[in-house]
Amino acid sequence: MNLSAYHPTRRAMIQNVLVASGFAPALLMALGRASGNSELPILPGIQEMSGAVFINAQPAIIGQEVHSGDIVTTGPDGDCVIIIGEHVYLIHEDSEVEFYPEYIEEALNASPSGLITITAGAMLSVFGKTNTTITTPVATIGIRGTACYVDTSAEKTYVCVCYGTGDLGGKQDGLHLETVKTKHHDSPRYIYPAGHAKRIETAPVIDHTDKELRMLEALVNRRPPFYKKKKISKNDY
Fold first, then answer.
1. Pairing of strands 139-143, 147-152
2. Maximum distance among all alpha carbons in the chain?
3. Contacts of 68 by beta carbon, 8 Å cutoff, 6+ apart
4. Does residue 23 carry a pLDDT above 50?
5. Would you tell me which of 117, 129, 215, 224 could form a disulfide with 98, CB atoms 3.0–4.6 Å apart?
6. Are 186 and 204 in contact (CB under 8 A)?
7. pLDDT digit string, tens, across residues 65-118
8. In angstroms, what CA-CA distances link 67 with 51, 60, 98?
9. Over the stretch 172-225, which tens digit does the pLDDT of each residue have?
10. Domain extents for the chain?
C-alpha cells in the first residue's frame, strides 16, 4: 500500500490500524470477522483514534458512543473510527461532523437514517440499510445503503460513491445534479457551489483505499461487494 500521497497524520493513523504489529483489539477482531466465518458482536462508539478528537467539544475516549445530535471534531493530528448502528465512519484530520440531529427513521437493528452534516474535513463511511443524506457547505449526497468518501471545503466538495447508489445535489439551491450507481469507485465527482460555471465534474479516485473499506466493513461483519468471493488475509491489510 502506497501511503505517500496521504497527509502525514493520516498516514500515521492508517499505518497504526492496518499494519499487523500495530493492531488494536478492535481491529484484530475485525480481522477475525473478515478472514473467518464467525461473527462477533458489533461494538458501538469509537473503535480507534489518534491525536485530538472531541465529542461536543469534550475530549473523546475509546469506546465512547456517538448519539443523535453529537458533533465530532478532530484536530490537525486527529483521526477516529466510529460505529453507529451498522454504519462505520473513518473521520480524518481537521474535520467537523454532526451525526443525525434528526432521525428519518430507525430500524430494529438500531441503524439510524437521517442527516449527517460535514462542515469541514473528510470522512469515509460504510452503511448498512439506511436512508441517510450527507450535507456539506456546497453539496448533498443521498445514501441508500452504500459506501462513500467525502472531502469538503468552501470552494468544492469531493465525493466518491465507492459502491452502491448516491443522489448528488447542490446544497444552496437544492438542484439535483446526478444519480450515480457504482460497483467499485466508478464515478467520483467534484461538486461546486451555486453560481459556479460548472456545478459537477468527473474527478479521480483520491485519498481513500479498498483496504480501509474492508477494515470498516469488517467491524460490522460485512465485506465490500467487490470483495465477496475472496478470502481476506492479514496480509490484505
1. unpaired
2. 52
3. 99, 100, 101, 102, 103, 112, 114
4. no
5. 117
6. no
7. 999 999 999 999 999 999 999 999 999 999 999 999 887 766 545 588 999 999
8. 21, 13, 10
9. 999 999 999 999 999 999 999 999 999 999 999 999 999 899 889 989 999 999
10. 8-228
Q: Which string of DSSP letters, residue by residue, matches the chain? A: ---TTS-HHHHHHHHHHHSGGG--HHHHHHHHHHHSS-------EEEEEES-EEETTEE--TT----TT-EEEE-TT-EEEEEETTEEEEE-SS-EEEEEEEEEEE-TT--EEEEEEEEEEEEEEE-SS--EEEE-SSEEEEESS-EEEEEE-SS-EEEEEEEEEEEEEETTT--EEEEEEESSS---EEE--TT-S-SEEE----S--HHHHHHHHHTTT---GGGTTSPP-GGG-
Whether the Cβ atoms of residue 113 and residue 132 lie closer than 8 Å to each other: yes
Query: For the whole model, what pTM was predicted?
Result: 0.84
Contact assessment for residue 128 and residue 122, using Cβ atoms and an 8 Å cutoff: no
Q: Count Cβ atoms within 10 A of the Cβ of residue 196 and give its class: 0-12 exposed, 13-18 middle, 19 or more buried.
A: middle
Q: Are strands 189-191 and 157-170 parallel, antiparallel or unpaired?
A: antiparallel
> If one looks up domain 8-228 in CATH, what number appears?
2.60.120.1440
End-to-end CA distance of the chain: 9
Cell of 177: 445534479
Length of the chain: 237
CA distance 163 to 215: 15
